[in-house]
Write a structure and sequence with these properties.
Order of helices and strands: HHEE
Protein name: DUF2933 domain-containing protein
InterPro entries: DUF2933 (IPR021682)
Low-confidence stretches: none
Pfam family, one: DUF2933
Number of strands: 2
Keywords: Membrane, Transmembrane, Transmembrane helix
Mean pLDDT: 74
Radius of gyration: 20 Å
Organism: Sulfurifustis variabilis
Number of helices: 2
Oligomer: single chain
Amino acid sequence: MQWIVDNWVWIVVFIAFVALHLFGHGGHGGHGGDGEEEAPRRRRDDGEPGRSSGHRH
């Protein structure tokens, strides 16, 4: 019990990290998506297939 009293700040940080990771993906659909197919890949300026850089919705 003394360990919890001494380390309560780290326990709160850990719980916040887990909660934000699980529930803080607002609008992203969480991990794994919602069953939709992946968007088609875009071509870079050099003609190589690949994803565009940047995070888009």
